[in-house]
Amino acid sequence: MKTTEQRIAELEARVAELEKAAEQTTADNNNPLCVCCKDKPGDYELHATDWICDDCAQYMNDAGNELDT
Fold first, then answer.
1. Closest CA to 61 of 47, 49, 44, 48
2. H or E element: which one contains 51?
């Protein structure tokens, strides 16, 4: 059986892998820029021409706003 510390280390390594993959996916993304920050390519389509990035979507969700899909 794995110790708590071993399991935490495995989870942290997995998180790092997923974050790296997400960064690569965003870098390869050809979507228009985010309508909120205008810095990053959009990850989620709001309307036919408006996109929002993952960071701004998370901020909006944390603020209590949800996307209508």
1. 44
2. strand 51-52
How far apart are alpha carbons 31 and 17 in whole angstroms?
23
The pLDDT tens digits of the residues spanning 9-53 come to 999 999 988 887 677 665 555 788 899 998 888 888 888 788 899
Q: Read off the amino acid at residue 38.
A: K
The whole-angstrom separation of Cα 20 and Cα 13 is 11
- For residues 54 and 22, the answer to whether their CB atoms sit within 8 Å is yes
Q: Contact at 8 Å (CB) between 51 and 35?
A: yes
